[in-house]
Amino acid sequence: MQVSVQGRHVDVSDAFRKHVEEALDTILDKYFGDAIEAAVTISREAHLFKVTISAHIGHEVDAIGTAEADQPYAAFDAAAEHLAKRLRRHKRRLRDHRRTDREATETLQAQHYILLGDEAEESIGTNGSDEVAEDLPLVVAEMTTEVPTLTVSQAVMRLDLGDLGALLFRNSSHGGLNMVHRREDGNIGWIDPQGNGSK
């Protein structure tokens, strides 16, 4: 497994890099022996160190763990524990659902746009050099993304593993587009528009 460690405004020592690699090897081998790669980013925010771990554990499946602490090792260890907890829960769900090893791989290609936020748009409009058309969002980036075919429980697992706010997917039971999202109260919402399934 390939592990990359990157520091943002923080020097990454060889000892820290070795600690990261050994800990991630242990965690990922325990839950997913075939993990492909992992990326660790450490940054300093005021008096705290923030660590984000992103582990690619399968086709289009990423697991994220984050934490902050006043020491880099403590921040990494807490983020690694957060990641391990997510992987443990994911593995338990797979076992409880008695899934086969084969996960749906059919995907739908869709356009993905990143729109300029209101605050950034206001700053562009007030500097006098550029004008932003009213009522039209400014497109910052345009790319293609994949919409996977999943069951609702698989979509919830991916949402949880990736620490995502929302996930659009094609429901494998009826072929229609669905979305799961994280609600402000901490629960997961599921949107299944009426009439979007294939007849």
Summarize the structure.
With 199 residues, the protein is α+β, with helices and mostly antiparallel strands. The chain has helices at residues 14-31, 72-96, 118-126, 152-161; strands at residues 2-8, 37-45, 48-58, 61-69, 107-115, 139-150, 166-171, 177-182, 188-191.
SSE topology sketch:
Elements: E1 2-8, H1 14-31, E2 37-45, E3 48-58, E4 61-69, H2 72-96, E5 107-115, H3 118-126, E6 139-150, H4 152-161, E7 166-171, E8 177-182, E9 188-191
Parallel strand pairs: 1-2, 6-7
Antiparallel strand pairs: 2-3, 3-4, 5-6, 7-8, 8-9
Subcellular location: Cytoplasm
Subunit structure: Associates exclusively with 100S ribosomes, which are dimers of 70S ribosomes.
Family: Belongs to the HPF/YfiA ribosome-associated protein family. Long HPF subfamily.
Structural commentary:
By secondary structure, the protein is of the alpha+beta class. It folds into two domains: 2-96, Double Stranded RNA Binding Domain (2-Layer Sandwich); 107-191, SHC Adaptor Protein (2-Layer Sandwich), CATH 3.30.505.50. It has helices at 14-31, 72-96, 118-126, 152-161, and strands at residues 2-8, 37-45, 48-58, 61-69, 107-115, 139-150, 166-171, 177-182, 188-191. A five-stranded mixed sheet has the order 5-6-7-8-9. It has a four-stranded mixed sheet with strand order 1-2-3-4. Helix 1 (14-31) runs parallel beside helix 2. The longest helix is centred in the middle third of the chain and has 25 residues, at 72-96. Mean pLDDT is 79; it is low at 99-104. Its main location: cytoplasm. Keywords: Cytoplasm, Translation regulation. Belongs to the HPF/YfiA ribosome-associated protein family. Long HPF subfamily.
